[in-house]
Amino acid sequence: MKVAVLDDYQGVAESLANWSSLPAGTEVEFFRDHIADENQLAERLKDFQVVMGMRERTGFPRTLLERLPELRLLITTGGRNAGFDEAAASELGIVLCGTTGAGEGPTELTWGLILGLARQIPLEDKLTREGSWGTTIGVGLKGKTLGLVGLGHIGSLVARVGKAFDMNLIGWSQNMTAELAASSGATLVDKDTLFRDSDIVTIHLRLSGRTRGLVGAHDLGLMKSTAYLINISRGPIVDEAALIDVLQRKAIGGAGLDTFDVEPLPKDHPFLKLSNTVIAPHQGYVTEEGYRAFYAGVVEDINGWASGEPVRVINPDVLNAPQLRGLG
Prior knowledge:
Rossmann fold, 11 helices, five-stranded parallel beta sheet, elongated
């Protein structure tokens, strides 16, 4: 059995799980580079029976899955992966499994981006190293308004920290109720009010047909010239061209971004040339605790599948389907 572990950017996957517990004869290959070209990716993976993909890195659409006749088990870190075509995997007889996670990395990174912008930490670090001392004036959070677009698990935890900073909390999403907002200490407002009144807007939604492009030029145009936008959810939720425009014109104070339309972010991307952005390489979930849980889960998934008792199966109907490519 050949196992491919993809997008191991930091080169740590091998050390964070007990790969030796896999069945005798299993060959595991770790790939640090990211391949975006489907032809090259299909060529790399054509001989592997098991492939692990880190969430939101390499996608597996139908067109790719159809070119991998040896693939029997496809694993994503986390409980779901919008980049994996579940229906196609089932039709082709491929078992799709997930893993659990650990910690609250996305919540913590949200506040890292907020504080980085409000206190100009990355800029002051750079300038201090270059010989300058004390060049900017930070913004305090107490009494400011935090606008939460989404109050699910992560959004509600971000709200809790905002309350600890003695901020005013307001919230909106397509399905949010006044009761849900109140349970997180926030007040439900309409979308225009949230973008107009917030000093900081944070986005905590899943990417779907309803949320793609949800934050557009109109919304960004309502924001205060001093306000910050934070997106650790998914890049396409925000109209990228509209965000670049307001940042270039300095119509808003800045943006803290961990997710983008194209990842890895192209080296010549406008976001990287702006002084009013703090950029992170989609590292909301990238913590040692999270990675250990992910990779340990991958090993468990492979062992379960190899023993004929797969765990955390995302497409369970395939297990009894005639097209199943097999277990173990």
